[in-house]
Amino acid sequence: MALAEKYQTSITGLPFAQARIERPLTERPNPELLNEKLSRSSTKVMLISELGTASTGTELFFIDGPSYTTRDGERQVYLGSCDSKDYVLAIVASVQYSHLNIQRWISLREAFAVLPELQTELIIEAQAISNWIRTERFCPQCGSEVRASTFGWGQRCVENEHELFPRTDPAIIASVIDQQDRILLGANANFRSDMYSVLAGFVEAGESLESAVRREIFEESGVHIGEVAYRGSQPWPLPRSLMLGFAAEALSEDLIPDGAEIKDLRWFSRDELRDALESGTIEIPRGVSIAHALIRSWYGESLPEALNK
Predict the structure, then answer these.
(1) What is the 3-state secondary structure (H, E, C) of 34-76?
(2) Residue 242: helix, strand or coil by DSSP?
């Protein structure tokens, strides 16, 4: 069966592929919208600082809209609404909130392990927009400072009114399948030594997604790619990416790690992957990641855990 025919449907149940948060209509700017939302007790304000996102340990820490007071240097972004509640992000300095009952400031990766799905979706959105606001502080045309606009989703130059909006970087990630129905997994130089995953990379200027799959896979592994089938997408704000998942047909099997990003490559049959996971010889991305979903889709059922852990 041809790869495109076998993998012609999208992965079902892919986390964050279907958003629960209704986003604001940024093309209809209302300068009073943030103030209006913050005046309502149904509005929940989440805090993100240089240390992470404020939490109680098991959930996000929220401040009711009327109880939130803006401090100098803070930025607010209207994240959207869900279940009759509005959510506003405040980008803050952690020292200004040491008096509150914030148990800890958690990272995005920690959030995946402890937060409910809706709150994890909120932190993904908040992390992506705050990363952009913190890095895009000056106008690219004249170097002047920028101020917030469009509910916090835009920034406008204080001198020439040039408006900026967040950029999303497309990245491909692919389950590469050979003629023996084995999957290709690699150990990234930035991973733990026993962590293996499907290969990924950023889309370059003027490049189609399919071309990016073929180029990235060949650059990192030496494997030539034939058919490419789209499987689904997932936002990944590290720093501001959109992961676009594919299944890809391997036309060759010889493996040549690039030696820079990829330090080891292996083909796995289902039996080999099961044995490696159960013995703890290797690990793979877990939980909500699209990498895990791509591997699980090829495997055909839930992936085994290490038996010795």
Answers:
(1) HHHHHCCCCEEEEEEECCEEEECCCCECEEEHHHCCCCCCCEE
(2) strand
